[in-house]
Amino acid sequence: MFKIIVERECGCFKRSDMEASTTMESKDEALLKSIEMRDTMNNDFCEKHTFSVKEVENTFIIAMNA
Length: 66
Known about the structure:
Layout: E1 2-6, H1 11-15, E2 21-24, H2 27-44, E3 51-56, E4 59-64
Parallel strand pairs: 1-4
Antiparallel strand pairs: 1-2, 3-4
């Protein structure tokens, strides 16, 4: 199992329908989902923050950059 975790939840994230933590069966599936989430957060949120994906063992962490 592979996890996707949002490291810090900004206001836009809290108002969205996204989940802060989820699990996927495969690494590829988790990577694609985390990239999709990151892109949505970077493109559709208020742009006060930027987000990136980092991999730590079996977890993809969506981190807030600024």
